[in-house]
Amino acid sequence: MRLPRPYRRLVQCLAVLGEEAPLQWLGELVERVQEVAPIVEAAAEAGLVVWHPGEGRVSVAGPMRLLVIATMSASETCFAHRWAARHAQGAAALLHRAAAACGPDEDLARQLDAQARRLAAGGRPGQAAELARRAADVSDGAGPAARRTADAAEYALRAHDLAHARRALARLEPDAAPARHRALAGRLAVLEGRFGEGAARLGEACRELRPADGPAPEGLEAAAVWAVEARWLAGTPVTELRESLARWDPPHSGDPYWEGERRCLDAVLTAATEGPAQGLAVLAAGAPSPLRRTAQTRGRAAVTEAWLRLEAGDPEGSEAAVRAALGAAPPAAGDQVREMALTVRGHALWLRGAWGAAEASGRIVARSAVPLWRSRGQELLDLVAAARGDAVSQSGAGGEEPAEPSVPGAAARLFHALVTDETAGGTRTAALLRAGEHRLGLDVLSGPLLPWRKVELARAAVTAGDGALAAALLDSLRSEAAGLPPWVRACASWVDARATALTGSREATARLYAQADEAAVSFEAAAPWYYARYQADHAEFLAAAGRRRDAVDRYRAAWTVAGRIGAEPLRLRCAAGLRALRMPGRTEPFALTARETEVARLVSSGLTNREAAARLFVTPASVGFHLGNIYGKLGIRSRYELRRWWAGRNDG
Asked: pLDDT (tens digit, 9 = 90+) per residue, 80-121?
């Protein structure tokens, strides 16, 4: 790109600076200071700069900035960075100085190194990685350069910036620091979904880093924590993981980031053996002092809390923890906390029936640069689609599988099959329960960490005729009843009733359904899809027992909730049940009153509430009241849906 000579240097320097600059800074870039304003005005007219005359500040627009930088020569780039270094502040000034350096500058490298450590400790690993990379570029000697390159990879991994981490590891010679290189490569493999490979590399690094005597070297704590996490993801039993952690005995480095990581890992391992409540207690007990908390450690702890609360069956508490995580992690901390938080939030929203919002969270996470989180986002999208009865991705649970099987992935695939079979009447679950490659998912879903999903698995085992698995799961749920939320206890009694209906007496089944009714306080609000399915199953039992009126009431309750959340297969199932009981209307489980029918007719014709009220000689508030009843009876949420229903009714 050829720029006119009078303002070529001015535009280049502003492009490199990358932010607005006061007009007085530009005097040294032109031959005569008094010509600054006319040159800036001419550049603004040419579309090269953005000028706010009233504020006296100048900048280069984003697209133009990239174009200018791409066409600059080496000498022009060096001059622009030297100019920017004089005016920029803090880390930005150091970066410009490093970019303008013509050779090694160890004093500058030490300044960059110290600033990178401060940024990392402050929860800004992405910026720290860039500073460490620049420090390695201007280091005087291969040893300091290798150490700073390893630091750049470390900070990039903390920020989940995999592209930056790969570049740093490619520059780092394995022979310079073999154990640390192996540990960093192992962590990268875990984030890319290669859990077995990552666990092996990290385990080797821990064995090499652990000294026979004397202080442990830098990097042992990081390698040990990630090795345990990788092996947990790969399905290693928790008792074995705790033994490995005790054998490596990594000392506390004093880094707040790793203190937070160890606390979250300890909470997860505790929850996997003793249940979510104990995991939450460990997470709260090990909290560092407020002075040692950073935005990133607060965000990670809040995400772990959100996940444990979700698996404990508390979606409202989980969403509150997610809000805390998103508020604790500023954009400078990277996207990793945000992506993890949105994954948990999406599942909490799905459980609460807010499937549109859950889908929005899944779409954001599915665009992640990290394969591990990208697959989790796609799994969430497929889960929403399966519950709605829509088409899902070809892989069944996640359009992009991680490179190796994992505990979360196997559990997600199995749970996805459960939901799909429920909505589409398939038999995938029975096949998965017998398949060895899905043993990981079965072990996780039947463990103490996931009580509300264990209900789903027990119901599938009952449907598939696997009485032994169903009995084991139900016994486990009964033993955990005291620590379960009311709605999970209600679901456990519901599944127990289904199992009893196949093998026991009608009286025993009715007694279990009555127990479920007693425990179902706020059931509809906490987990509406589960509530609607429970009511539909109960209705089927009552219809078989000859209690038609009670069955109709249950079907109506299930119909309303299914229509509200968009569970179309369940809604059709309820409609079929009502038709079998000879209820009026092919797709209308509730009969509208004469007044409600008149209101529906007028509103469907396009009249407002006030206009309809004038036709009926009532108040607009009365029309609104009748309209609310109509929406509830028909399971719809808008005038548009009401118009569609009215058109279909008249066509039928």
From this structure: 999 888 888 888 888 888 988 888 888 889 999 998 888 887
Beta strands 50-52; 21-22: pairing state? unpaired
**Other beta carbons within 10 Å of 615:** 14
Q: Which of 113, 114, 118, 117 is nearest to 133 (CA)?
A: 113
* Distance from C-alpha of 167 to C-alpha of 270, rounded to nearest angstrom: 36
Would the pLDDT of 399 be above 60? no
d(CA 307, CA 300): 11
Q: b/e map of 253-272 (b: 16 or more CB within 10 Å)? A: bebbbbbbbbbbbbbbbbbb
Phi, psi of 52 (to 5 degrees): -115, 90
Give me the phi and psi of 594, to 5 degrees please: -60, -45
Q: CA dihedral in degrees (166, 172, 176, 181; nearest 10)?
A: -10
138 three-class SS? coil
- Compute the distance between CA of residue 202 and CA of residue 208 in angstroms, rounded to an integer: 10
> What DSSP character marks residue 51?
E
Instruction: Name the DSSP class of 251.
Output: P
- pTM for the whole thing? 0.72
Query: Could you give the strand order of the β-sheet that contains 57-59, starting from the edge strand earlier in sequence?
Result: 21-22, 57-59, 50-52
642 contacts 600 by C-beta, under 8 angstroms: yes
Residue 88, phi-psi category: left (phi > 0), alpha (psi -120 to 50), beta (remainder): beta
Name the pLDDT band for 167 (thresholds 50, 70, 90).
Answer: very high
Cβ–Cβ < 8 Å for 391, 419: no
Candidates 41, 154, 16, 35; CA nearest to 98 is: 16
Q: Which is it for strands 50-52 and 57-59: parallel, antiparallel or unpaired?
A: antiparallel
In the numeric block, the tokens 């054998």 are attached to 247
Which of 373, 350, 345, 378 minimizes the C-alpha distance to 363?
A: 378
Rounded CA-CA distance 80/66 in Å is 14
Cα Rg of the chain (Å, integer): 31
Tokens matching residue 651: 């066509």
Parallel, antiparallel or unpaired: strands 21-22 and 57-59: antiparallel
Tell me how far apart the alpha carbons of residues 18 and 64 are, in angstroms, rounded to a whole number. 11
How large is the angle between the packed helices 106-121 and 125-137, nearest 10 degrees?
Answer: 170
Are 635 and 562 in contact, with CB atoms under 8 Å apart? yes
CA neighbor of 387 nearest in space, from 427, 342, 411, 353: 353
Task: Answer whether 494's CB lies under 8 Å from 517's CB.
Answer: no
Instruction: Identify whether the C-beta of residue 152 lies closer than 8 Å to the C-beta of residue 164.
Output: yes
Distance of alpha carbon 362 from alpha carbon 259, whole angstroms: 30
Residues 6 or more apart whose CB falls under 8 angstroms from that of 11 comprise 3, 43, 48, 49, 60, 68
Tokens of 506: 């009608």
Q: What is the pLDDT of residue 392?
A: 66
β-bridge partners, 218: none
Name residue 59's beta-bridge partners.
50
pLDDT for 31-54, tens place per residue?
665 678 888 888 888 888 888 777
Alpha-carbon gap, residue 117 to 126, rounded angstroms: 11
